[in-house]
Structure formats: C-alpha cells, structure tokens
Amino acid sequence: MKKSLLPSLLFLAQTACQTTQPDVVVTLLGTSDYHSHAVPFYSEGKHDQAGIARAMAYFKKARQTPGTLVISGGDTLNLGTPTWSDEYRCIEWAWLNGVVDIMAVGNHEFDYGPEEFQRCAASVDYPLISSNLVGADGQPLLRPDGKPYVIREVQGVRVGFFALGGSDFPRLIRSHLLPEGASWKEPIAEAQATVRQLREVEKVDAVVFIGHQFREEDEAMARAAPGIDLILGSHSHFKSELVKIPGTETYFISPYQYLTYISQVRLRFRQGKQVEVTGELVKMDENQPKDEQLEAQVRQLQDQLVAKRPERFQVLGRALVELGDEGLSQHETVLGNWATEVLRKAAGTHAYFSTASSFRAGIPPGDITVETFYTAIPYKNTVVTADVTGEQLLAWLRLSVSKRGSDIFSQQTGVRYRAVEGDLTQVQVLVDPARPEVGYAPLVPGASYRLATTNYQAFVAAGYKELFASFANPVTTTLDAHTVLSEALRAGPVTAELDGRSGGN
C-alpha cells in the first residue's frame, strides 16, 4: 500500500509558515528624572535644550510605529525648584495621557504629600507602579489590574514591567509624606520575587525594570535577580548608552535628566523568543521639533509664572566663565570647584566635600538669575564640620573615588590627588585654611585636619555617614549652602577653572 504524502506536506507547510513569520519588534522610549523641567534650558554647554514640547513631539511621532511603548522612570516633580513645580505641581501628568504607557514612582512624587500624590494619580489613565511600596498590611499599595507590575502584549509578545523604590527611599521620604501606614520593603528581595512571578507564573517573554533606584543598585539587582532583560536607568541622573551589565545578561541604558535625552531600545523577538536588544540615547536638542500647541501652552504658563514670582527671575549675579557641570560623577567640574571653594572658605576648613548629587546643571556665562542658580544647585544643605586624622581623611577620599561614576562621588576642594585604577597617590592637603595661597603639602596620616561637607553627605549618604560618625568634634553649623553661595554671587562676578585636583581615572 502506497504511503500518503499528506502528513509530510502539511509538516513542510507548517515549517515554512513558521520560518517566514516576521520578527516582532517592541520599541521602548524611556525617560526619567524630569523634575518639572517643562521649559527648555541650558545643558551641556548649550541653550534651548529639552523641554516637554520637544519630548512630546518625539513621542507622538514614534508611537505611529506599531509596538512602541513610552515609559516614565519617575521623579517628575521637585519641591522648591524649578518654580514651575511649586506652582503647577503635576500638570504635565494629564498631558501625557494617551502617550505614556507606564510610570515608575520616584521619591519626588511624594514631595507635596500623600493627598497631592493621590490627586495627581487620579488625573492619569496610565498605571503607576512600585512593587515595594506597601501598606500597613504589607501588601503593595499600587496594584493596577490587581498586580504590582504591568504586562503589555505586542503582536503576541508579552513584556512584563516592574518598578521599585531604592534602598535610600526610607531616608529620603519622610513618613508623613506617604499614605498613612505606608513603608518601603527591601528592594532586592522584592525584585527577586517579582521576576520569578513574571517569568514562572505570567510566562512573559521579556522583563523590563523601569526605575527608581541608583545605578549601583540596578547593577546589584541584575546580578541578584537573573531574568531581567533590560533596565531603564533612573534616580542617578546618569547618562549611559546601551550596555550589558558585566556578569549578567541584562542590558542597561540611562537618559541623564530633565528630558535632555530619551532612551530608545528595541527588543526583537523571533517566534516568541528574544533574539536581539539594540538601542541608543536620542538627544532632545534644538534640532528636534516641538509640539506647537504644547509649546504655546508652556510659554503662556511660564509667562504667568514669571509675572507671579518675579523674585525668582531676578539677576542674582554674573559669571565670567561657564560654570560647567559635565562629568560631575566622574571628575572635577568648574561648577563644583567654584561652589566647594566658596563653602570651604565660609567653613574655615582644610577641605570641603559635596556629593555630585548636590549639583544638577551648569551655569552659563553672563547674568545668573535666581532660577538659574537653583536649577544648578537645587537642594537645601547645611554645612557640617568635623576633625579628622590624615588616615580618616584618606578613607573618606578613597570612598569617594570608589564611587566614581555615581551620584555620591565627591566634588571637592582643599585636597589634590592622583587616582590610578582606584589607588590613591600624591595626596596633598591645603596647608592653611585661612591662607589658601600658601598651597598644599603631602597628607600626613597622623596629622589633624578639619573637614566640611553637607548634612546629606554626613548623615544620609551610604558609606559616608558611617565614616562621619567616627570623626571627632562634629558640628552642624548655621551655614546654609544656598545662602553662602548666593552671597558670593551677589559679591561677584564669579569665575573658576579646572586645575587637576581630582586627577587620574
């Protein structure tokens, strides 16, 4: 009896269909750390950068391509600066309806308290998530569709998205700013549990973390919770093109801050399996078109703001050079050199340190308005001093250098050093705080020095606060950093330069 060819032909037809099935590409556009910067501003040495009208135009055009999702990594607000935030709060949240797909909750979302957070959340049609924000019963407070994560399906491909509050959230957010009874669970354990749930129960084809924690915590999470395909960086205001985190299969990209860049990542799937991850940062500079309608609205609101709060737009001083901020987390900057030296003189100490996170933008040459000043140095800090031995000062300096590339690397003055592969050499300290013109001398391990820093670095920043606790004669001074720097600007004009104080790599 002749064998039928029908089963074979059906198998070949099915195989041919499978092999010719087109790839599915999911494109993710990620933003983070917007901090109410609706109006274009000065960034990386250029005026007229970013602005929400530019980003919105880019998002709307990109969404015309099927499979495109827009993700916010959080920190959309910022108490105190820019003035836009205090006046208009979360007005942009509703503008993003129909454009943003998911938003992670950052620490600044709670700047104005729980009632304001709830009001803002009620204005949007996209989900807000953070798996480790829990109520008094220990269960996640933010559960769109009953779950503390979000799954989006694109042409049959299921992508799971989750978010966390970083380990510093309990210190950064005072309890009265959160909903009653709310708290933050340890993020790594929550990440592990969420990834397992997404992979093993939800059976997603990819897992994406959207914020909101420091870059170092992102990297540690990738190693501790295998199964995360992509991390959209946030919180550190770090700028990074798409890279693979060493020792993992997890990709990482981070778009700096204030909508100056958008992270654009493409996840390619073939027959339901992820086969490629590509991406880049897209700069929102003067060459990017703006959404004209939104631009007009922003301009009108800003004009109203200037009329209502003219004191914030008055000229405070003048800079003879650009007080640049490029590379704040990597090496010395002109802005950091100027500010730390002004504060060191005011404190009367050998050295002054301030985490890179104290500074958020450069200051262009020319007139400096109050708003420009607060944009560059937004956070309120008090000067704290202590006596240290040379050995303790060296330990503090080593910690700072070990944090190069992060928000808690130190901008500093009064110390000069070389750093080669993390090893410090040629460490010198200012000889006489009252007479800096005398110069520097090699650090003496047994000698006594007076160190100054911010109250954040002394009492909150991980690693530093433990070291500072061992220092002698700590004093929280009455010196307010904003007041001291403002007075220096008024006495102006100001100038500064790079001098190689934080040399090496």
TrEMBL record:
<feature type="domain" description="Calcineurin-like phosphoesterase">
    <location>
        <begin position="28"/>
        <end position="237"/>
    </location>
</feature>
<protein>
    <submittedName>
        <fullName>Bifunctional metallophosphatase/5'-nucleotidase</fullName>
    </submittedName>
</protein>
<dbReference type="Pfam" id="PF02872">
    <property type="entry name" value="5_nucleotid_C"/>
</dbReference>
<keyword id="KW-0378">Hydrolase</keyword>
<dbReference type="InterPro" id="IPR008334">
    <property type="entry name" value="5'-Nucleotdase_C"/>
</dbReference>
<dbReference type="InterPro" id="IPR004843">
    <property type="entry name" value="Calcineurin-like_PHP"/>
</dbReference>
<dbReference type="InterPro" id="IPR029052">
    <property type="entry name" value="Metallo-depent_PP-like"/>
</dbReference>
<dbReference type="InterPro" id="IPR006179">
    <property type="entry name" value="5_nucleotidase/apyrase"/>
</dbReference>
<keyword id="KW-0547">Nucleotide-binding</keyword>
<feature type="domain" description="5'-Nucleotidase C-terminal">
    <location>
        <begin position="329"/>
        <end position="459"/>
    </location>
</feature>
<dbReference type="Pfam" id="PF00149">
    <property type="entry name" value="Metallophos"/>
</dbReference>
<dbReference type="InterPro" id="IPR036907">
    <property type="entry name" value="5'-Nucleotdase_C_sf"/>
</dbReference>
<comment type="similarity">
    <text>Belongs to the 5'-nucleotidase family.</text>
</comment>
<keyword id="KW-0732">Signal</keyword>
